[in-house]
Structure formats: C-alpha cells, structure tokens
Amino acid sequence: MIRIFPSLRFASLLSAAKPFYSSSPARAPPQYASFSEAKSTPASHSPSSNLKTPLFLRTPSHTTPLSEVWKWHDWAKDLASSVENSSINSEDSLDSIILLRELKWLIEDSIVDDPLVILHRKQNEDDGEKNVKLRASLEELYNLWRQRIEKRRPFQYVVGCEHWRDLVLCVEEGVLIPRPETELIVDMVEELVTKDEWFKKGFWADLGTGSGAIAIGVAKVLGSHGRVIATDLSPVAIAVAGHNVQRYGLQGMIELREGSWFEPLKDFEGKLVGLVSNPPYIPSYDIPGLQAEVGRHEPKLALDGGIDGTDSLFHLCHGASRMLKRGGFFVFETNGEKQSKMIVDYMMTNDLKDCFCDLKIVADFAGINRFVTGFRR
Ligand SMILES: C[S@@+](CC[C@H](N)C(=O)[O-])C[C@H]1O[C@@H](n2cnc3c(N)ncnc32)[C@H](O)[C@@H]1O
After folding, report:
1. Which domain holds residue 347?
2. Pocket around ligand 1: residues whose beta carbon is below 6 Å from it?
3. 67 and which of 54, 128, 255, 307 could share a cystine (Cβ 3.0–4.6 Å)?
4. From CA 174, how far away is CA 240, in angstroms rounded?
5. Overall average pLDDT of the 278-289 stretch
C-alpha cells in the first residue's frame, strides 16, 4: 500500500507531500523496552493495556453484505464532497480531494478482501448480496467518518496509525502524529553513521520521543550495536512508543524512560554519542490559530514551546553540552527560519560559546530552515 500525502496541513509543524510506504510487522501486545546491558532505570510504569488497536491490525470479525458497504461508501463520499461548500472562505477548511483519498485508505485498512470491490462498484454491481469481512462494524465506520469530518479528528487517530519512513507507527490521542519533515532527522543520523562507525557503537538519546518514531528510525540505522534511550514526560507517549518498539522487535536496542528531558538520563552524563529531539516549539501565541485537527486533538504538551517557542530548545542546548561526549552529534528540529537562527546564536554565546562546533542549519523538504545540527567540542 502506498499513501501519498499527509492529510494534515498546518502552519508551524509543516507537512510536505512525499511518498511513504507501508510495512506490516507482526502484531504484538504493548510492552516496555529495557536494555539488559545498561545500568539504567527502566520506565517506571507498567505497560498500558488501554492502548487502542489500529484498524489494520484488528481481527476481521465483522461480516457485512457488500450492498450495505456500498451504501456507507456513497454516504461517506457525499459527506466528503459536501464539506467544501459549507466551509467556503475559511482558511481552515477541509479539502474534499484529501478526504476522498483518506476514505480510500480507511477502506484499505478496514477490509480484508480487495478494496476494489467497494471502490469499483459498477464493475461488481451483481455482487451486492455477497458478504465481505471488515475489521470494524459498519456502525463504527459511520462513526469514524463522522468524527473525521464533523469533529475534525485527524485521520491518523481515526485509523490509529501513521506511515512514517518505512514504518507504520501506532498513534492515538495523547501522542503527536509524527510529521514527514521529522524523517530528515533519521536521514541525517544515517548519513553520519555511514561515514563514521564511532557513532554506531555508542549511546544515543531521543528526547520527547512521542510515538517513538525517531528512536525507532535511529535504532534501525544504527544496526545491531545501536542503543537508544528515548524519554518523554507523557505516560501515554511512553506507552505508545513502547508498543511501537515492541512491534518492530527493538526492545533490546531502545529503552524508554518517563520523565522530563534529561532528568531520567542522569546516568548518561557525558556518555552520549548522539542526541536527537523534536521538542515542542510552537510559540504559545500561535496555538489558538492552529489547524483544527492539530489544535483540537493533538496534545498541547507536544506543541507549546512557550512564549517564543524556544523554552524546550534552550533547555536542550544546555543538556547537550552536559550529556554529549567530545565529538558527539546533536540534531534539533525547530519551528524553522528565525527560530533555528536563535538556537545557533544561543549556542554561540554565554556559557555555551565554547561547547559546540560545526553548527549548521539544515532545510526540510519544503526548503524551510528547520533543523540545527552540530558536534560537542
Ligand atoms: C513535537 S513532539 C515530538 C514527538 C516525536 N519525537 C515526533 O517527532 O513525532 C514533542 C514531544 O515532547 C514531549 N515533551 C514535552 N515536554 C517534555 C518534557 N519536559 N520532557 C520530556 N518530553 C517532553 C511531548 O510529550 C511530545 O511527545
């Protein structure tokens, strides 16, 4: 299955269109990951059994006549097409073309048979009496599509997953939906470790791991020697990340720790070879103006970076100076442009001025100066 898009368009956490590919690792129960080698505290909570199962991983236990599914599909298409007229002149309107694409993906995630039996109704007109197997009841599919359109619930929360790099990550309310531009952090790490093996063998940290996207991406590019400690203040994020880590069988490589930024990493002071983070960086003032899907549904903790959006970033700069080994690498995602420059300026002044070298600002897919990278002196 190839999904081209992101369905979310919003100002600060920018989404540039690019292709991404699905893979479907075996289903596994949610569980925390913990290094056996590291003398470190594993996450302090037990795994959450309340995590939702994404649609594509559910058992197809609903048998429904095709004619009823067609009826739902006609209704869903009509609802998607009607939105544009109802929200004309609004800057934050839904786009019916994107919605129709999402509807196709919803069908792909829900049906066991070929989705074309639903999508190409005319060619299958005589099959209306046949039954199809679904992963959700028709009643739930009606509800999910209503939530998507009427409540502006993000599509990724509706289906319970996001396709990111070569991963399919489970997501749900309480955890940020990973964005396409953040994939570049993993690309940068991959480039670095391909050139210099030193970075493959040491400890990395992903701070504010959310769904675990960066930590999983980094662990995969580090290969069998890789070790990543992923932290988050949000227990929901830690539970979701744990589930994703488990699904990709990376429990031996990624350890999750709940707590604020560097607080759960005291035993790694001066020991990290790499530090990556996509912290909250949206200025508080901009939060009310976010696209409805983001502002109403995604966790504030993941978005709000304080007055000018730099609260967490400045904190990370100081932490990087303490936590990284000499020669250690860091990459931070920012709100872009002015904010990236502020971070570089901050790292070149005051008590941080002799701590880093090779500071760079790197653009994202859309050409926005999005990332700050550098090395510990
Ligand atoms: C922008 S999200 C990034 C999530 C994920 N890394 C990604 O790129 O999709 C920021 C993350 O930082 C976490 N966070 C916010 N404040 C934190 C803190 N004080 N300590 C640790 N994590 C924090 C949030 O819960 C959220 O998961």
Report:
1. 18-46+174-376
2. 176, 178, 182, 208-211, 213-214, 231-234, 237, 260-261, 278-280, 301-302
3. 128
4. 9
5. 97
